[in-house]
Amino acid sequence: MNKIPRNVWVLGFVSLLTDISSEMIHSLLPLFLVSVLRANVLTVGLIEGIAEATASILKVFSGVLSDYLGKRKGLAVFGYGLSTFAKPLFALATSPTGVLIARFGDRVGKGIRVAPRDALVADSTNAEVRGAAYGLRQSLDTIGAFLGPLAAFLLMAAFNSNFRLVFWLALIPGFLAVALLIVGVREVKTNQTQVSRSNPIQWQALRSLGQGYWILVAVALLFNLGNSSDAFLLLRAEQIGISAPLIPLTLVVMNIAYSLSAYPLGILCDRLGRFGLLVSGFLLYALVYLGFAFVRSPWQVWGLFALYGLHMGMTQGVLLALVADKVPTNLRGSAFGFLNFAVGIALLPASLLAGELWQVAGSSTTFIAGSCLAIVAVLLLLMQREKYTPINY
Asked: How much is the average pLDDT of 123-132?
């Protein structure tokens, strides 16, 4: 098997540092909003929904622009840099509106960087190692995603639950990530045709992405209508009886499971095919959300967070590899952009629906609804199974 290229490794470590920075803040943000700024759960859902939807919508434009220019790195640097420079706004926020502004700036940066970065991974690899490459980047990303909450937990314990100090310290790994990206990643030259210099948002270009791709987009949209912000998982953990200082550690457990599973499962999907693993991951999500609906003991919550991380290892990188397999090289940025746009369109109503169901019908109803939507997405995917036969490398 070919070796995974340097670009993938460097992008993985950039993601690792960025996630340490981001998760130091995000693992504490729901509790900061509720306990310090006195926001209600519906406000938490609104902030998370607006922020994530903004990021996903912008991914379309950055992905299309990277296809048009035939270059990915500059957009990635700008996006990572913007997210880092938005982080001081969290420490300065004195109201939920201030947090919304900070989350908006942070997610605008994410919206700019993600589609070019994912396309850069595809440009840097061939099909026989693509699942492993996405799995590796996801694993390194997720190591950062559990080191961030762990750092938040230790700093909160050491500094008497000083939220704002933790938010300021989160700047350090963010700056290191941007520096590593600038120095370590090289632009990849691909055999792009002249169509890459035309507008990718044209009917002919969109049709050339293929029916199999657009079905994946529809499945992602439907699935994410029930996939509300992880803030609700954290609030559910607190509701069941896990104390506030320990809440960030639930994300540590989730991301350890994610990081340990993403790379080996990426290798597995290269060898055995992507479709079955993706379906299994969606079904596991449905079971985990049912578990959150009916959980009664704190020890069960820890197990559910671990299984949630396994679901992510089974689906996140695999879905990206499946998309990269299905679309033309010169439209990869656009393909990842539209996929994330579909996710973004779903995230705002998903978080608002979750917050409304939580307040009106109780927290269990929020998770039951998410489980049901995941099952419907799986049924749609199974109906189109023939379009995703394994590729012979």
From this structure: 82
